[in-house]
Amino acid sequence: MQFDHLSRKHPRLQGLLAQSAHFRRLDTEVKKLLPANLAAHCRVVRVDEQGQLVLFASGNMAAGRLRMILPALLPRLQNLDETITGVVCKVMPPNEPPRPPKTLFIPEQALARFDETAERLAHHQGLAQALRDLVRNHRNQAD
Fold it and tell me: Which domain of life is it from (predicted)?
């Protein structure tokens, strides 16, 4: 995407775009240094405050293999970015699967009864409010 027109007006955005481009280039260059079958399973995350290049590996096997070869690659990595003082490899956190859509259907007659029950439970305000919320949410879903 081209954000040049926006970044001219917003210097902070310009800095973020430059940093993003730097890390994309660094990621590409780091992957060129790695064996092809390993490069596909890792990515550059950041260079932290101590100058540690942080890499994410897609799994334990890739992380273990990466940890074995990184010490030998450190001088070449430092040639790519002079701020790098060391390398840390972490296993990438798993992506959470999307939550399935709610499919519970409560008939209108049952919702009406919940509404009536909430009115009779004035002395249990928390429970009455929970019932009212349930009714409101299910009616909103139906719309």
Answer: Bacteria
Q: Is there a contact between 53 and 88 (Cβ–Cβ < 8 Å)?
A: yes
Question: CA 94, 39, 44 angle in degrees (round to 5)?
Answer: 65
Exposure string over 22-46, b if 16+ CB within 10 A, otherwise e: ebeebbeebbeebeeebbebbbbee
pLDDT tens column, 37-76? 999 999 999 999 999 999 999 999 999 999 999 999 999 9
Q: What is the length of the chain?
A: 143
Q: So what's the pLDDT on residue 54?
A: 94
Question: Is pLDDT at 135 greater than 80 in this prediction?
Answer: yes
pTM over 0.90: no
Please, where are the H alpha helices in the chain?
4-9, 11-33, 36-39, 60-80, 108-120, 125-142
Q: Which two tokens stand for residue 6?
A: 């926006």
3 state DSSP class of 100: coil
Residue 68 vs residues 34, 38, 89: alpha-carbon distances, Å = 12, 12, 10
